[in-house]
Amino acid sequence: MKRNAIALLITLFFIMAITLILGVTLSYVNSIAEDVKKEKFMLQTRIALDDVLSLLKGSKEIDALLDTNGSEGYYMFLAQSGYIPLNTREMEVIIEIKSARSKINPNSFKENNTTVKAERIAIFKEFLNFHNVDYLYADIVTDGILGVRDDYTYLSEIFNYQPHLFRDYIASKEHLELFNSYFKNRYRYNTLTNIDFDALFYYSKDKESKIDLNFATVDTWMFLLGCDRLRAEAIYEMAGLCSDYECFGLGAIEQARVEQFNVSFYEPVVEVGVTMFQNDLKAIIQFEYDMKSKKGSNFVYKI
After folding, report:
1. pTM of this prediction?
2. Which of 30, 59, 62, 293 is the most buried (most CB within 10 A)?
3. Beta carbons of 287 and 297 less than 8 angstroms apart
């Protein structure tokens, strides 16, 4: 209860600070940039991002949360501050904060520039089979993460059709969709719709990033354990409460499967989304923020 109270208090301070700083900032920008609508909007988005980053880096409340070094308080913080709508005179701002380590990074299948991690690919193929997706799809993803081969031999023919397709790692959801489209068009399979890739994958160049088991999605648990959705949902109910495998009720075989991947019970790295609306203009800014190192990364702008 003490951790929960701390997390709730921190959340309240956090929301109040965001509301105040964005309100003051946007009001100031409005007064100096009324003549050019779009430029003003772009300036607002940039300043809003800088302010959110400054707030995250300078927040003593977040520092206090980290001092507890526990998943339960972290879980309560995200549960309370995960969705923050703000309104100013001219603009609506929505800030979303969630764990950035709840899903599988497909780039983690890569061992080096010539090989993949056999155990992880085997688990991936088992997951595909469970969803009635041919294992050839795993070969296509493998081609997408191993880079340009010296002998130009690949497991699939995708680069015969798209020779300029980036292939060092899967960079984004849109990038993966290019591989998915090839699979569906080349093999006439539509079973990829059985997989919710938004709930399963996130994309990072860092193939060593860990999965926070306390925030793992239901689809992530299905992938890791090779279990059905009912079993995964039961494990998901323990989110934010566990510091060991026993707490999740995993057996020795299940634990061994999970440990084929880089996993953790506490990874305070958040994904922050800032969505801004002004009349017919909209901007979405997303980035990861490591609460321990106080660094942002993987910035994506959509304006």
Report:
1. 0.85
2. 62
3. yes
